[in-house]
Amino acid sequence: MERREFVGMLAVAALWRPSRDDVTIVDFSDKGERRGVVHVPKVVKSESEWRKQLSPLAFAIARERGTERPFTGAYWNVHDKGIFRCICCDTALFSSSAKFDSGTGWPSYWEPIAEENVKHGKPSSGYTDSEVTCRRCDAHLGDLFNDGPKPTGLRYCIDSVALRFVK
User: What is the pLDDT of residues 74-114, one digit of tens each?
Assistant: First the structure.
């Protein structure tokens, strides 16, 4: 290989970026059993692909960072045993064992099923948003507040439409 070819290949390699980065999450069965840490491709879709997959309300919330009205979502008053998965990519996000009645009209949890499966900033005291998103697909799930119950003192205030419940 000549020097010119080698330099050209280096330039191409420097500009090439994979379109789908791997992410590390914890995999769970539908029964909520922890299967272990897995490395999976980040879910990246076009706006039109998300619109085909999601209802208009789910798209507005999960992809455009909207919020459903309180006391209108499917899961705010659900007390069955199970897990809550991301509506966009099916990643396990919350367990019913961490769900509590916050009185806000949205499903609320004091912890995620695995911290590796969500992204968020510092909890808010109610004056600023602290967005919670799915680590695998960046779906907007809701917000994180510091007014939850023990043992964490946190309240993951999540939009029902961003979730899929598995009993």
Answer: 999 999 999 999 999 999 999 999 999 999 999 999 999 99
- DSSP β-bridge partners for residue 134: 118
Residue 144 burial (10 A CB sphere; 0-12, 13-18, 19+): buried
Active-site positions?
157
Q: Specify which residues 24 forms β-bridges with.
A: 39
Closest by CA to 88, choosing from 164, 11, 32, 3, is 164
Q: What confidence score (pLDDT) does residue 45 get? A: 97
Of 102, 74, 72, 100, give the one whose Cα is nearest residue 87: 74
Question: Residue 77 has which token pair?
Answer: 């008053």
Q: What is the arrangement of strands in the sheet containing 108-109, beginning at the earlier edge strand?
A: 99-100, 108-109, 155-158, 140-145, 131-134, 118-120
Q: How far apart are CA 159 and CA 134, in angstroms?
A: 12
Q: Supply the pTM of this predicted model.
A: 0.85
CA atoms within 13 A on the CB side of 33: 3
